[in-house]
Write a structure and sequence with these properties.
Blueprint: E1 2-5, H1 11-19, E2 23-26, H2 38-48, E3 51-54, H3 57-66, E4 72-75, H4 82-102, E5 105-108, E6 113-116
Parallel strand pairs: 1-2, 1-3, 3-4, 4-5
Antiparallel strand pairs: 5-6
């Protein structure tokens, strides 16, 4: 999967996803880094066909109103340590790969993976 990790999530997540074989970048590598506006993140995701991984509800509203970004992974865990977030992702990576092959909006919480249609 090609992924773009938003600013509220750790850079380490993008690094770990890369080590797991995915093409993952964090917004910190973009020209405006963590100050990159949501619309610029969306345009970057569209241009590079990346799934945006975020905790930001603004992306959810944009997805439902405009279908932008085209693919969205919402993380709804509340506060969580970097180690916990990586364990959660690694435990669900195969499922997320399968889900994103068929769906555009997936939510990852501490207890479930939810597909939104």
């Amino acid at each position: 999967m090609k992924l773009l990790v938003d600013a509220q999530l750790p850079c380490r997540l993008a690094q770990e996803l890369g080590r797991a074989g995915h093409d993952a970048i964090h917004v910190a590598v973009l020209p405006l880094a963590n100050r990159t506006p949501d619309d610029a993140i969306t345009q970057w995701a569209i241009r590079e066909a990346r799934i945006v991984i975020t905790k930001d509800a603004d992306f959810v509203a944009s997805f439902w109103l405009h279908r932008k970004p085209p693919k969205l992974l919402l993380v709804s865990t509340g506060n969580i340590s970097n180690d916990e977030i990586w364990r959660l992702y690694s435990a669900n990576l195969a499922r997320l790969e399968t889900d994103f092959a068929q769906h555009d909006f997936v939510e990852l919480s501490r207890g479930a993976v939810t597909i939104h249609v």
